[in-house]
Fold these 2 entries.
Entry 1:
Amino acid sequence: GQEPLQSPQDIRVHVVNTNFTLGWSHPGKEPGLRFSAEYRGPDSRGAEWEALPGCRNVSGTACDFSVAIREYYDIHYLRVRAQRAGQVSPWSRVLEMVPVHEAQIGPPGLELQSTNGDIKIKISPPEANQGRRMWLDDLSFKYNLVFWEDSANSQLRSQTVFPIDTIGGLEAETPYCFRVQATLPTEAKQGLFSAVRCARTTRRVKELLCPTNLRVLGLNMEFHLHWDSEYTQPVSYSVQYLMGYLKRLNEDYSGKWLGVPGCGNVTARSCRVSSVFTTTGFYYLRVRARGEGGRSCLSGEVKVEPLKTNEIGPPGVKLDVSDTLLHIQISPPGGPEGERMRDSYVLSYRVLYWKNSSNEEEDTKVKETKQTVATIPDLAPQSWYCVRVQAFSESYNKSSAYSREQCAQTAGGKTFPLIILATFVVALAVVLLVALPLVFVLYQAYSKIKYVFFPSCQPPLNIEGFGGELCTSPYLSAPEEPVENCSVIESMIMHEGNQIDFKDYKHSKQSSRDSGNYSNEDNTSGSKGSAEALEKEVM
């Protein structure tokens, strides 16, 4: 009988863009040997395997199953088996595949054009004009161009280019060959190279009117474009700029150049261009020269990345001394109008300080800070110290020149205690001047209240109390003087026939009654006693 069929081995897939090929190996070579594959994908019903379109009953060891795959981010499972008349092999091992992980970037398109000694290139994305796409964002591609002179012993050169770009620095009237590769840096994927294209450079015509050697100088986010010219006749210049991201688009950007404000029709060979750098991206600048008779010539381009092109200037420094402390106030580069510097960079500061002594060599010490205020402690009293400060950006690996040297003298060693003592004495004197009058006023108020409401002796409750000590107070009205009250009873005593008339006493009694003085029973008794005494005296 026939030997049993072996299963296919070495199952693999090859994916370029959205083109899928399944491959395998098998030791059998006899005629009539066929292979069939099955798959299970996100659209499969449950755990059922389905016949793989394009891979049923094929005679070779590879098949194209591109039409079967529609989901590029989901897991797919594949298996293959061999078959011949009346006999099938066991299924191969199951191959697990996520299409986007297996896919390679296909070759991009490349077009060349020779102009004035340069080669202009135009690159189309790897899946241009295709209905099904593995790579959804063409703007994510970066292109690596490799080129060489089409001659023996030539060396390969490569550079990163935009979809529409110009390759300069080539020998005139010389053939060059090019090929390009698309890459996705974010996914660490490198694509396949395009087919080789070749072109011959033309003779370069030198035009003296054209500006040359364009360069941008920047300090504290203030930028100026400079250029050279060999043209000796009257000429005017206009500066143009292009937003850098426009070059990443797969379209012609030639009509999107704009004029730089304040740099139109200037005669000088420099111009301030800070106003156009409004973002942290990159830009391109060029200059058009216009001479007599309407002639004009356009310079080459210069690329500007403001945060990389800019140079950091020295910061401002102000010193303040208190006792043995040195306070350093730092102003960011650019001065009061340096807001763009503060907004663009995260700056740190390197402070150099040393004791300025003519008698001894003092080592320079370094202090770094991210703040605009720094304090140097533990300095010697009555000594001169000097400071220089440098600003730097770690993220951009840039640093400024050091500021100009500034020096200050620390205070004397005993000055601070004397200031404390003087402050204490003055404060104590102020407290005494304020407290003493206040205490005096409070004491006077207390005395008056005590005399009025709590006198040291009480007024008599009745007339009997007048026998005691009189109560005097400067805050009470003076008491009336005591008045002796007398009451005489009119009476007539008979003795030996003689009649005595006490009319005067009667008159006194009447006067007493009229005066409203005290009169009661006790007084009446007293009057009787007085009469008896008088009677005895007469007798």
Entry 2:
Amino acid sequence: GAEVVFSVDCTKLKEHFLPGKREFDRIYFNFPHCGRKAGVVKNRQLLAGFFHSCAEVLAQDGEVHVALCNGQGGTPADQPRREWHNSWQIVAVAAGAGFILSDVHPFKAETIHGYKCTGYRSQDKSFCVEGALNHIFTRSTAPLCFSPVSCQTQLGNQKVSFQVPQVLVDKINRGFLEVNSSHPVRTIKEKLSAGLSQAFPLQNISSCLPLLHQGHPSGVCHSNIFWTTLSPGEAPSTEKMSQGLADTLLCSHFGQDTDENVQEAIPKQFYLRPSLLPHARAIIKTRTFSPGTLQVLSGPVFRKCRITPHSMPAFHEMLVVLAVSRGTENSCVQMLVDNMKTTMNSLHQGVSGIKPSISLQEATSFGAELGDFAAFERQLGEIQHFLSVGTDTDPSGCCVGVIRTAPDELKSHELVVVSASLNLDLLAMLLCGISDWRMLWTSDSRFLRQFPEGELRLFKSFSLYPPSYVHDVSFWLPGREEFDEVAFHTLARRVSGEMVVSIQLRDDFQQPGTGRRSLCYRVTFQACDRALGSREAAELQLHLRQEIQQQLGVTLR
């Protein structure tokens, strides 16, 4: 009962089927080959034409199955694996047509009734299919269009709109912590809160925390801050600003409020909150809390940072604050840590699937290995304990939280305030086996479908072996001042739409005589959730070079 069509050109599928018959759920191509002794380049071209043709006739949720002999694909699934240049580079070729590799498994001819492997070098004889693999491709989500976005928030006692930095456009107002969300960061936050409530009375005060602060954050490196401007016509009135200035100042400074800080706050400079700690300190200063009750704040925070596997320009922070009687703070801190350890172990045990063992560790000293999260937290004040999660592959662990006591000026004769800050995104990665933080922010519905509401599972990536593209960029610095690497990394994030996964300094050269300094960086482009082809990566590199010259004032080499 099936229709069989002959003499079909696999690179022009649309021409062989009427418009009403073009929505195929599956397209199979078993062992494609140009014929005779065609080299790898010609066969890549064949696959490129085939995938572009599939994009015109495949249903939105359809699949493309391509079977290749062992080693041809060039992926880690091939055993043994050929050198990249000697393979068909199937994942990169498919990416050029908007497809991602979603599954790969052994090709078993014996399971297909009536199938026979013939056509060895265009002859009617079989060829070896031992170790052959079936590659299953699906459509990628379309590249995001980062148009300018304004966002509304509370500033003092007035609502204002501000321009969202382009690098954060897809990370503002995502609602991951909302009541109807099934995102793993919310599940972890809710389960941690439930665990803490077993030991302490608990109160959530996360509603209406402003995204925007005004002034100059003392103690924090300004290159780590996302500065922004209010939308045209949105500048707060002088009267309303003076009414709300006291409240704003409480949320604007990380250190002690002095007259000098007040003067610095008067210029209308605005920045996205890098931490929830100022909100907690505002609560402490106004004494609007009950001693012995755990206050829980949560929400997204924003920090400029270098590009590393665990460094995030946006993540969800959970901050718990506890006021205790003076002299009992050490025992309360230990109770807090023990409770978190117990809850973390319970969360880990509840994750379905085979997973690496993890452990919540407590440290009193800071090391570089604890990562950028801990490094930034140190800028916010003295830390008593670092909380890190160790795994089988990384026993030393990754810092996911810190515990500190409030500064002396916020203490009273009777009470000491203890706070614990946790990076929920890092916890979600470690608990659910998510190797790339960008996956937490994907717009692809296949991510959230793996996490039913209230349940944590081991994540299975729907984009396997994404290709990476390496480009170098070299430039002369404009003067003798130190180069701002954080600004460079942030620029690369913005230009590429978070497609840059690594920036490494390859050479630092100073010209004899003139003293001019030149830097050379190696930039690696790679997507985690969508197709990224070599042509698009090359265009991103070209755009990055132009923006580096315009925005950072360097001279390209």
